[in-house]
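Researcher: Let's try something more involved. This one mixes different molecule types, so please make sure each is placed in the same coordinate frame as the others.
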Amino acid sequence: MGAAGGREVWITGAGLISSLGEGLDAHWAALQGVQVPLIDAETIAPYTIHPMAAIDLDRQIAKKSDQRQMEPWQRYGVYAAGAALEDAGVKGRPELLDETQIIVAAGGGERDVAVDATVLQELARSGDEGRTLNERLMGDLRPTLFLAQLSNLLAGNIAIVHGVVGASRTFMGEEAAGFDALRVARARIAAGQGRRFLVGGSFSAQRWDLALLFELGGHARKGGFASVGARGDDDGAGFHMGSMGAFVVVEEAGEARLRGRAPVAALSHVASDRSTRVPGSVHQSLGRLWSGLADRLKPGRFAVLSCATGATGVTAEEFGALRDLAPGAPVRAVGNVVGHGVEAQFPAAVLLGAMAVRHGRLFPPMADDASERPHEGPIEQVVVTGVGHWRGEGIALVERAG
Amino acid sequence: MARTYLDGEGRPLVAVTGMGVVTSLGRGQADNWRALTEGRSGIHRITRFPTEGLRTTIAGTIDDVRLDEPSAPALSEQLALLAADEALGEAGAGRPGDFPGPLFVAVPPVEMEWPQRRALAVEAGDDGVDYRALAAAAASGRHRRWHELFLFGGVADRLAERLGTKGSPISLSTACSSGATAIQLSVEAIRRGETDVALCVGTDGSVHAEALIRFSLLSALSTQNELPEAASKPFSKNRDGFVMGEGAAALVLESAASAHARGARVLGYVLGCGDCGDGFHRTRSSPDGKPIIRAIQNALDDAGLAPEAIDYINAHGTSTPENDKMETMGCSAVFGERMPTLPISSNKSMVGHTLTAAGAIEAVISLMTIANQRLTPTINYLQPDPAIPLDVVPNRARDARVRNVLSNSFGFGGQNTCLVLGAEPASAA
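Model: All components are placed in one shared frame. Result:
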């Protein structure tokens, strides 16, 4: 379903951290020249991931006591949210924070995998598993870890650390949560249901609990790095998880003008859908979503940033759909450069799209990915496509504003 | 003058045309209403899992739903379906399996549970097992269904598939105000003209050992296990925490114009929604109560109603020392001198705290309160708290004139969401 409503929506703040560093400028610099993904093949081997760059948490999360209340997933998100607020000129200004609303696309927080392993070993030796489980959990679980795990506590920590105390909602549901967080925020601004939203998500890739969840479905890619377009059933389908924090401040354009803010880019369209996955359904779904923005595209001046995961079947379908829908348009898979951040992937891709239109050109292709070709021409628009590894399709149009 | 089906702000007026509810008191509006007005409790000793070594051994679990493989997402899904089937049957919008609008579902955050971890550990050979070994066992591909079962979007997706809702289903969490947030998101979508009709659901079937232990370690739960049905005592002096409950509720929301056009019976209106964040603390409210006050005020403003128009408050009323004190403070600030005589009661005294589902369940009960012109009681109210001088509708239901209800929902992480539900549009006069 798409969005109606007449008000123009701008991205006025960008907060992005990943394996490539912090901020859109650092990402732009890292993406010039030959693409070499930054990977970590050891921490949770045999899974290969994109680790978080060295980040000085104190810069956005001043109190160590706040940092201690969180695990990496929440820290990355709170950090990126702070960076986005700072970039938008909203940080530390209560009169603006007071009316800023939050929509977070969230997964769940880290489990204590050491405790889990100990409990499982005890259970194996126990003659009374129920009692043993109760006693171990009562004794070993840290009370505060529950709060570090609760999905809506990423938003809660953003409120505490940055003082964003407008309404907050947390969407769950993997990749689709990222599409819908941006879709609903944009639709609400366009319809006059809010002036400024902080929207995004975060992901920590060095997590055994998530590797296990995605491995159950055959989606956690093992072995060395391969580019998204080169993955397939023969060469290990699935994704390399990528640590990231991606938050966007989106704002009604008139509101931004009033406070003298220049846009990073315009967020002109966001839509999402759900198809029952059978062969061909992703292709069809993307076709429907594409038709919602096709008449706004400037031939030869737009690029596609794909959130393709590398999941069996659907990634091949997505690339096939893009060849049909936008023949000749340059395509880049965001997963190639920062890995897959599930809920955070779509917000991260929108930010990288904003980066590209601000520079007016696209970054170079990944060397071993046949679906990416060099492109030197000017880029004024970026279409972001998202196809969830299991469910959900989304699309966004980011373009030069003003 | 012809009716415009718009509210005072010129937005589409949002009607409720179907409702469904399931709690530990029973299935369906009729059974729940009977039990609630009789002042019955659905709280009992936990039999689902061993409780040896636990400080709390009681809950309002729902144990009569057959599941092939019990888990929080599987039960949450079934409870949601029971509630949705009732609501859709009443609303008559669309056709079975083809609901003509989007789905907003408040779902508990889920993750792999101990039986699954244990099964993988056994397959991994148990000895010295760790997550690397579990993941290696998972790579066999024998448990693919667990991947879909424990994805956060899983419950909503299966509901969307079964009910034929349109678009991308929204799974959401605002902790213990989630059910109210599902309604609020639907109202917003209808008001901005994105859809004429929406299905909102709050569901929670997540009482298992670890979930209970987590709340227990935060000292949030009542430990008054001796008399389970008497443990949840909102607003009482001797309240000592909430009792976990399970349940689900579903509401079909529809623009009044659409409801009228197809001749649907209107059960009531969602006149206003208000929310406000709180940056004070992860589990506690700002001591000055400002976010709660602002959430209530926002809901009243959104409804275009003055505080005087509220006839009854369906409380969040968890039975924790903190919540009931802060809720009293917030309501007193908004309703002033009227507060001691403005009836306010807590359904959680009977069904426990249904967490993610609570806001939706209590919205349904609020609308039943309007339909029946009868207030549900706060049971177990034997020792009034002198710091809480409220008319909590103690122990017995009673008749009352009720046109507009305020329903409060507050959650960890600074979530405050309030709804104003009414018999008639505020702007009709």
